[in-house]
User: Fold these one by one.
Assistant:
Number 1:
Amino acid sequence: MLTELSAYTNRWRRVTPTAKGLFSLCGMIAAFAAGSSRTALLIALMLTAAAIMGAGVPPMRYLRVAAPALLFLVTSALSLLVSLDFGHNYATGVSLHLAGPEMTRIAHVCCRSLACLTALLFLALTTPLPDIISLLRLCKLPDTLLDLMTLCYRTLFVLSEVVHETLTAQSARLGYASVAISLRSLGVLIANLSVQVWQRSQALHLAAVARNNDGALLFLPPDFPHATRSISRAAISGILLIALAVTLP
Amino acid sequence: MTAAILSLTNVSYRYPDGTSALDNCSLTVARGSRTAVLGTNGAGKTTLFLHLNGILRPSSGQVRWEGTPLDYGRSELRKLRSRVGLVFQNPDSQLFSASVREDVSFGPMNLGLSEKIVRERVEEALHAVGMTDSADKPVHNLSYGQKKRVCIAGVLAMQPEVVVLDEPMAGLDITMQEELTTVLERLHAAGMTIIVATHDLDFAYGWADEAIILQSGRLLAHGVPAKILLQQDVRNELGAAPLVAEISSQLSLIGIDLRDKGYLPRSKSELLTALGAHIRQETKP
Ligand SMILES: Nc1ncnc2c1ncn2[C@@H]1O[C@H](COP(=O)(O)OP(=O)(O)OP(=O)(O)O)[C@@H](O)[C@H]1O
Ligand SMILES: [Mg+2]
């Protein structure tokens, strides 16, 4: 939900998603084009700066959102770095090897992944999902897929509310007082949730039909002021980023 | 009396599980009228409303639009649903887009209007319910009452001839209830037909031209609220009568007549004004 929060509250909320998407895409291309770890790190730094200084995402929030992904990156880097050697005969036993000559290549891969991650984070932290969906619609993704995304996104919140309310209601009546009771309560919660999912989907269907729907879920595309200006700015900075990645060693 | 816009003749409805929710209901709603539907929980108000929009089809009997029985074909249903807007009881089951403005645009987009017109209508509808400031908020961050207002805007943006609201006041604060009453008054003045399900006797008494009382799926009474809400059987069924009417009738027992040009006060404010006027007259030397 931290991503949600910053997507809705950042300074660039009212900037057209096309511009932000374009910039993020350029960031990813630059990350791939980066010829050395240093260049990739520089790209990552610049993308982070764009999110923190440009869009005004608080640094701590940025870190907290990035943390799980960074953890994955670090563990995979470590596993690349260290290899187990079972030796030629069992007498010598198992030995750990640090990948010496491979070192630079591994560092390069990691830094590029980091840059890609920051490019994606930039988009996720500055653009609410509905905007991203409308961007994908512009990119001519199939309607069914987008409708599914819309409904899932909305249902996610409705369900999390139901779970939350049910949990509170159960706890209020000592539903989690002991392990055995907790297990039972959890079971009831899950059973109840399945019924709710079914009923909610039924209700949403009725509501859609009542408002004359008979097919794709159509909404007014959101209106963003100064779209052309933002897009050209994003394009220029994106291209500069790529140029930097290509020219630096 | 003006012509009937919607009418039910001997409508019965049974849910698939066998519950009989409507039982031989016959009623008419006049064009441009304000109708309140009252009944205890489970009396069948919601079920009745789902029939008006063609979502449920009577097990027996007929629903008519301007005298013509509904044809449940696809194109006819589309026409009906663009004429009859239905605001559901639970806002969470009506809102399925993530942002307020998007959700309000859903109905008009389904009508196949141009983007420009949709945009205008959405702004107009948001303005009517006082939600312009929250138009870009995600729906899940709104309060219950705000969600309800968005639902109403979503239906108003379709500019239907009839608006059917299922307990619109429930969950709204007093100011919001008054504002909503003003919105309803404006719609009424513009010639819209309005049907409201409510548990608020005083609201029904003060606002409606017609009241429909349901009792376990059957029509108990149908007529002018000032008359039928005071009937003994209706009073027994609903458990009370409108407070304003009770006070006026009690006062008339001790000889205080609050009638103004032959009309008894219908709302709390009218009652207070009438009482004030009466007291001033009494204390005059
Ligand atoms: N989907 C359903 N399946 C089976 N029975 C239902 C269903 N929906 C409603 N009922 C039953 O139909 C009857 C009428 O319900 P309805 O929802 O119309 O009442 P209501 O007057 O709107 O009540 P409330 O004031 O609580 O909203 C009730 O007895 C209810 O239990
Ligand atoms: Mg109901």
Number 2:
Amino acid sequence: MKTDIILCGVGGQGILSIATVIGEAAMHENLYIKQAEVHGMSQRGGDVQSNLRISSDPISSDLIALGAADVIISMEPMEALRYLPYLSKEGWIITSSKPFVNIPNYPDVETVMADLNKVKNVIILDIEKLAQDNAIPRSANVILLGAAQKALNIEYDKLENAIRRVFGRKGDAVVEANLKALAIGKEAQR
Amino acid sequence: MRKLLLGDEAIAQGALDAGLSGVYAYPGTPSTEITEYIQNSKLAVERNVHRRWCCNEKTAMEAALGMSFMGKRALVCMKHVGLNVCADPFVNSGMTGVNGGLVVLVADDPSMHSSQDEQDSRFYGKFAMIPTLEPSTQQEAYDMMEMAYALSEEVCLPVLMRVTTRMAHSRAVVEVKETPRAENELNYNAQASHWVLLPGNARRRNVTVTGQQADLERRAVESEYNKYVDGPDHKMGIIATGIAYNYLMECYPDGCPYPVLKISQYPMPKELINRMTAECDEVLIAEEGQPFVEDLVRGVMPGNAVIKGRLTGELPRTGELSPDAIKRALGIEVCEGYASCDDVAPRPPALCQGCGHRDVYTALNEVLKDYPNARVFGDIGCYTLGFMPPFKAIHSCVDMGASITMAKGASDAGQWPAVAIIGDSTFTHSGMTGLLDAINENANITVIISDNLTTGMTGGQDSAGTGKFEDICRGLGLSDEHLKVVVPLPKNMPEITKVMREEIEYRGTSVIIPRRECMQTLQRHLKQKKAQEAKQ
Ligand SMILES: Cc1ncc(C[n+]2csc(CCOP(=O)(O)OP(=O)(O)O)c2C)c(N)n1
Ligand code: SF4
């Protein structure tokens, strides 16, 4: 198997915690992993992205080629669109629906939604509302992960176990909240 | 043992496992995580490995050389522009040579994700005539550290290890050793005539070091990290260095039809390069950074092979490479994804909400409304973002410390008002000496040291001068009358603007210190405090 994933959002939205869980699941399966992260200047409210590649065969490049990404997981709808040239024609976008408006020229939200809906495979979720409604306000990003499970080509229970290992140190309540978030995301898959 | 490590972390772990006794560094993207990893390492704590941040790259380089002279293994880490700051001790450490292994780790930032230029540190390695390493993978980065220390001690020279952003900040699974090597014993193996670079000694030493070059090149030819893999099709050969090798291999999952020379150790393995230019009609050279190898291979003499690369347009002249850039150079079709979307606005970084620098710029802009000819010399840090709207408040940013000295030069030229704005960490990095110049001439400048009690831009590392700035300024000869401290908060605007106005009007050197903690470190500290309280 081989899955090329672009994780994106706005600096400070915590895209790397999703990457950590995927990385943990992949590591446990003895898969090869390459994950190019963004540190530094662009973290101050700028756009951020991470290229995460997992594969059963050795991986050469740290970066994903144009048109090759299987999944874009985005914490912000316009940011998902930024990486469209990297998305394979059969690839998936899994994104939060909530715009993060910290620039004066943020495009019209309806246009952004329309652009997203032009993509063949897309899941748009109001993860913050889902998280609020389910009393797991700190686990919104894991809902996206759940919704991306099939596109990631990782079995559900392997993600569950990865969550247990990654969040175990923080106590049972945190583990449970994230498992719940994962389940909510899973339900949202088509 | 397998670990999922950033390139930076693999380097740090590799150094620790090679028996490191001290890391000396000043933060700088993309090198910062090396030192941070060592600071958080249990082994480093147990062994009391030196791991505190230094004032700047020059003090770091010199301290590491001192440790090496005493026989222990030391590591210096910096971003590429830091090598300019420590160029003097760096180049001259090539002249003195070393005793304990000394590795200088420099992280370059092609495409300038977080930097002011895209300089390629391999030029420095050649310049200083020392072995230079450029790993292709995180595993190589780890393995190379042990090799680098052994090499450094064997040839008695420092070793430069050059990585780039994609290596430093990319994670991969790395196989690491179970048992770290012991540290070296203190061993003052005095080589006084090497170590005292008086001209007479240095001349002798220069002959020795230049004489070592053939041996260093032989080592590069034989290195396990440089490999020549022949291919059936000799119409072209490909030289790929460091991380560019990965992008090349990405294009040929089933093996490359052309001969490939991977280079990860310098000086240039000329024998291997000559084989390729002799056996292939054309040679494509792919390297991350500037066309270092390409320029040397191309030279000025006509050869029998056509050299292609960044200088001939097959590869982009500047910026990072990517799998797609290599595909284009090889004439391989680039995969088509979705068309790019026009409805995406750029999202540049900005100062955090509530950041004290914001209040400083708000006040400064308010005051400077009355001085339309004012020039504001900026410096390097989060506050450089004051260039962006809504502030648009600075007129220059060149290198660390330049705000004060450039304001002084402008003032010498007749400019008034000349304002310098500099962060606390940048001030102790290389602003203090410039301030002494200004004070000695009572230059007509206003210096604002925007003190947020941390090194913000690189993620909130300790700042060397915290708690000492007033004393430092006084010590440099500034009178208390023109040393003002304010708290940058919206409610204090009247006071801050009054102070700024007065000090601009004062015809001499003055320093204003707006002081309030960085929002990011404040939040971190509050969280830590809460966790501490929960424990009790
Ligand atoms: C020679 C050199 N070393 C390191 C850096 C990386 N760097 C850029 S800004 C910065 C920190 C600045 O800290 P400070 O002056 O306190 O300002 P703040 O970011 O906290 O506002 C560092 C270390 C650099 N650009 N140049
Ligand atoms: S990190 Fe700190 S200094 Fe930098 S912009 Fe944010 S609050 Fe300001």
